[in-house]
């Protein structure tokens, strides 16, 4: 079976490479010529643990190809995945222009039966819209003898462990109505039968909604624990222990109950906003998710106040920031709380030194007038306070004696609760975490 993946970003590149790892012949397409050139030279344009090896192995085996030629990729494939961006518009609704464009192109080049699958996260009913656009393009280019089925196959991988998540997912969701498409997609995911991954076949709107409901629920857990953290600070409770004890209840589960600066990244912020927006179009308010979004925005401001409370007036102060990606093990800085907090600190007159193990190049495109450093200790040197914004492993075991000596003031604001408050005070720091 030949598969094309259109859009070779965090999702498309992982999806394409991992299908190739199953032994399938995959062509990854992107309109970014530089990205395709780099991939064809063996370079991986993103930081994603384990991905480089999978790409290399499958390119060498001749199963994984990279091209900008969407026409040949479409024509040589039975299954075509759409994995292009679905960014938010200013009102929070989803910009479907990338998806629409790809759908039109597919229709214009159709040369036989195809299954076109939305892997991008798309509002409910978008996959049917893709079908309409393809059919219109088929008609406009006089190709009525060809037909296609559509399906929704939302992606649940997490950046930072994307390869592992794709190869060993908790579940695979396929929304499809055409028996032929269902059979083809079942066959495509057959290698996962071996490890008994549940394959959930649903209607198309159900599959589309599963993705939003899942992300919104996880975002809810984060905003929930952040509000409990805020309360903990006022009543002298420790949110770390609250979350731990809550999480031991099997009905609650311990994951996504870490208090911090709020969720970020390329998915939760836009997907929660999108769910609120498109629900409204169907006449339904998502009141819980609306509150989750508002709490998340407030949380970033609270982090800045927290820093100010410990450092004092921020005007003219030098603040060191450790971590810029929205979470560890990725170079993705899209909607990263760390980036937002740096900008808010700058707005209040602070000078920023920062370091991230992998996300500096991406951060340089977003941040201005910031001193980028070589490591955590350079960041600490001469700073009036150190903010731990993203919990990369290398920030979990800092040489604290060295950090204290380098800092102008022994102040640490730990937005990820990596360190123990009592121990930090014993070591001579003015320290605060979140909700402790
Ligand atoms: N990043 C994640 O962790 C994640 C997880 C699950 C789902 N998703 C969803 O997957 C989709 C893609 O996300 P991403 O993070 O991979 O985005 P990305 O920005 O990393 O990659 C998208 C790629 O598509 C390319 N592209 C855009 N228009 C194109 C066109 N017309 N033809 C060919 N290529 C085109 C871009 O050049 C880019 O390389 C989004 O809908 C996102 O919500 C992302």
Structure description:
There is one protein chain. With 436 residues, this protein is of the alpha/beta class. The chain has two domains: 2-202, NAD(P)-binding Rossmann-like Domain (Rossmann fold, 3-Layer(aba) Sandwich); 216-432, Rossmann fold. 44% of the residues lie in helices and 14% in strands. It is built from 17 helices and 14 strands. It has helices spanning 10-21, 33-40, 51-60, 70-75, 97-109, 126-140, 162-167, 179-188, 204-235, 239-247, 268-281, 287-311, 337-347, 360-364, 376-380, 400-406, 421-426; strands spanning 2-6, 25-29, 64-67, 79-82, 114-118, 148-152, 172-176, 199-202, 318-322, 351-355, 370-372, 385-388, 411-414, 430-432. The strands form two sheets. An eight-stranded mixed sheet has the order 3-2-1-4-5-6-7-8, sandwiched between helices. The protein has a six-stranded parallel sheet with strand order 11-10-9-12-13-14. Strand 12, helix 16 (400-406) and strand 13 form a beta-alpha-beta unit. Helix 1 (10-21) crosses helix 3 and helix 9 (204-235) packs parallel to helix 12 (287-311). The longest helix has 32 residues, at 204-235. The structure holds nicotinamide-adenine-dinucleotide.
């Amino acid at each position: 079976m030949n598969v094309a993946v259109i859009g070779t970003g965090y999702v498309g590149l992982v999806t394409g490479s991992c299908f190739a790892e199953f032994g399938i012949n995959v062509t990854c397409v992107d309109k970014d010529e530089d990205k395709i050139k780099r991939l064809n030279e063996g370079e991986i344009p993103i930081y994603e643990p384990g991905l480089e090896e999978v790409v290399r192995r499958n390119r060498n085996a001749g199963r994984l190809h990279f091209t900008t030629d969407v026409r040949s990729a479409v024509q040589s494939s039975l299954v075509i995945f759409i994995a292009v961006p679905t960014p938010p518009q200013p009102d929070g609704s989803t910009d479907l222009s990338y998806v629409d464009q790809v759908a039109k192109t597919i229709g214009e080049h159709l040369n036989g039966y195809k299954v076109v699958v939305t892997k991008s996260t798309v509002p409910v009913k978008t996959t049917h819209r893709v079908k309409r656009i393809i059919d219109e393009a088929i008609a406009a280019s006089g190709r009525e003898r060809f037909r296609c089925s559509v399906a929704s196959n939302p992606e649940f991988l997490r950046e930072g462990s994307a390869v592992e998540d794709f190869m060993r997912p908790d579940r695979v969701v396929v929304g499809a109505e055409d028996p032929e498409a269902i059979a083809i997609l079942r066959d495509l995911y057959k290698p996962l039968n071996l490890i008994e991954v549940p394959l959930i076949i649903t209607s198309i709107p159900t599959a589309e909604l599963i993705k939003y409901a899942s992300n919104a629920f996880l975002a809810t857990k984060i905003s929930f624990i952040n509000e409990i953290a805020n309360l903990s600070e006022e009543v002298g409770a420790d949110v770390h222990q609250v979350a731990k004890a809550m999480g031991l209840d099997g009905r609650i589960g311990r994951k996504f109950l870490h208090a911090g600066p709020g969720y970020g990244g390329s998915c939760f912020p836009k997907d929660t906003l999108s769910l609120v927006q498109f629900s409204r179009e169907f006449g339904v308010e998502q009141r819980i998710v609306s509150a989750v979004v508002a709490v998340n925005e407030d949380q970033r401001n609270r982090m800045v106040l927290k820093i100010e409370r410990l450092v004092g007036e921020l005007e003219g102060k030098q603040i060191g920031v450790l971590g810029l990606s929205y979470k560890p093990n990725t170079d993705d800085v899209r909607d990263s709380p760390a980036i937002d907090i740096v900008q808010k600190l700058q707005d209040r007159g602070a000078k920023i030194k920062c370091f991230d193990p992998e996300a500096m190049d991406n951060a340089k495109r977003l941040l201005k007038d910031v001193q980028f450093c070589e490591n955590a200790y350079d960041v600490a040197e001469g700073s009036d306070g150190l903010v731990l914004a993203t919990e990369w492993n290398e920030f979990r075991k800092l040489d604290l004696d060295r950090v204290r000596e380098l800092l102008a003031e022994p102040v640490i604001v730990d937005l990820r609760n990596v360190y123990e408050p009592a121990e930090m005070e014993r070591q001579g720091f003015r320290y605060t975490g979140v909700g402790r």
